[in-house]
Design brief:
Elements (H helix, E strand, L loop, with lengths): L8 H9 L3 H23 L2 H17 L10 H36 L4 H18 L4 H11 L5 H8 L3 H18 L4 H10 L4
Helix pairs in contact: 1-2, 2-3, 2-4, 3-4, 6-8, 7-8
């Protein structure tokens, strides 16, 4: 019997339906990088791209008995990827709407001296956590959050692209998520502090 790496895509699908795990491994090896590049082009975040591709391939495995590609396996996987990317966009938009709603509510309530002190202390806590960031990432975060510069202004001052600015801010946000995991209130405040005032 041929090794799976010698199979055509059509043969791999047949083997996958028969429960041949080596066929799944070959599909994974054959298409991981292709799908990752396609996902990254749309999401501009390697972490998000990896997560989406992983979901597509896991779904392929769990639904292996149902799959019936109308064209090629690559086209089938790229179509599944496209819908998964759309789902990711929708979730991100819902997240942004939720943050906007929280900000609107915050602006309606007067800030007491105690609140101001707590916010100041929390900003100091965030600054101390940001010491763990790589130098360039930390600089971008400081310009965005504390100097209140736009992405464009940061890009011009640092001589980097706007997409690189966003990448650094995303990395900082990932750090904060890790630091405040399990404390939803602090994480929400951290999200608010990432938005221009």
């Amino acid at each position: 019997m041929k090794n799976c790496d010698q199979f055509s895509d059509a043969d791999l699908i047949i083997q996958l339906k028969l429960g041949n795990e080596n066929a799944f491994t070959e599909i994974y090896n054959r298409y991981w990088e292709i799908l990752l590049n396609a996902a990254y082009q749309r999401l501009r975040s390697r972490e998000d791209a990896e997560e989406v591709v992983q979901e597509v391939l896991v779904n392929l495995y769990f639904r292996r008995k149902e799959i019936d590609p109308k064209s090629t396996l690559e086209a089938y996987l790229k179509t599944a990827l496209k819908f998964k990317v759309i789902d990711t966009y929708r979730l991100q938009q819902l997240h942004y709407k939720h943050i906007d709603h929280l900000i609107a509510e915050t602006k309606l309530s007067p800030v007491t001296p105690d609140d101001q002190l707590e916010i100041k202390e929390f900003k100091t806590l965030i600054l101390s956590r940001c010491e763990k960031l790589p130098e360039k990432c930390r600089e971008v975060f400081m310009m965005f959050r504390f100097e209140e510069l736009s992405h464009q202004e940061i890009a011009e001052r640092s001589a980097i692209s706007i997409s690189t600015v966003k990448k650094h801010l995303h990395k900082a946000m990932v750090l904060l998520r890790e630091e405040f995991k399990g404390n939803t209130i602090k994480l929400l405040i951290a999200c608010l502090l990432f938005l221009p005032q």
